[in-house]
Specification:
With 227 residues, the chain is an alpha/beta fold. It has one domain: 3-Layer(aba) Sandwich (Rossmann fold). The chain contains six helices and seven strands. The chain is globular and about 50 Å long.
Length: 227
């Protein structure tokens, strides 16, 4: 097991413990609904009852359940644990225990793929994007929800990640800015819309807080491969 894989495995253990705390799931569901719900319900207008929707790195919040239409598939490496601890709270749909880097579905299976607050948790984010692109239909929609940082903070987090691991945030090995996430997305998708769904300002440093963004993307027919 490589260093990144070991790091990810340890983070998954902490992530599992986090979701088992009393009250956490309800609080997080409120956040997901308030921030992402309006955009998801707007996308829903273009879907049919038979649309196939994949929720990548869904956690127990399962953001795809906010779509009022479609048949959902929920994928997460901790799904087996969620089925034990939150079985009464998980929505209807297929449940798969798997990483996003190896989605066990054929090419062009889904009309919509959604990934909320999960990409920066993964071992290989670009490989995950390639897999999402692979299983998305040619006219499909990819919806990415992600926390983004101002450039100085992202650079500081990367330096801490490399040189001061004792201070790093275990669950988030990657720190993206609007510019850097655009660059990575555009290798595999065409960005159709960018929406900042949450920003926390302060009187002293209004530009140093992370922001919550959504990217609505179409599938590119050609793309580079991640190394």
């Amino acid at each position: 097991m490589g260093e990144m894989e070991k790091r990810w495995s340890e983070a998954q253990t902490k992530e599992d413990a986090f979701w088992q705390r009393n009250g956490v799931l309800g609080t997080e569901m409120e956040r997901v609904n308030s921030r992402y719900g309006p955009v998801i319900r707007e996308i829903e207008r273009s879907l049919s009852a038979d649309s196939l929707i994949l929720d990548v790195g869904c956690g127990p919040t399962c953001s795809a359940q906010l779509f009022g239409k479609g048949k959902k598939t929920y994928l997460d490496p901790l799904m087996a644990s969620y089925l034990k601890t939150h079985s009464d709270r998980l929505p209807e749909g297929e449940k798969i225990t798997s990483t996003a880097e190896e989605i066990p579905k054929p090419e062009k299976s889904f009309d919509v793929a959604i990934c909320v607050n999960a990409l920066d948790h993964m071992i290989h984010p670009e490989k995950a994007l390639m897999e999402i692109r692979r299983v998305l239909k040619d006219d499909g929609i990819f919806v990415l929800g992600i926390f983004l940082h101002p450039a100085p903070i992202a650079m500081l987090r990367r330096l801490i990640e490399k040189w001061l691991p004792i201070f790093r945030e275990d669950a988030h090995p990657y720190s993206y800015t609007v510019k850097s996430i655009r660059g990575m997305l555009e290798k595999y998708f065409s960005i159709q819309k960018e929406i900042r769904v949450f920003r926390k300002d302060s009187a002293w440093f209004p530009s140093l807080h992370r922001e919550d963004w959504m990217f609505l993307c179409g599938k590119k027919q050609t793309g580079t491969r991640a190394k």
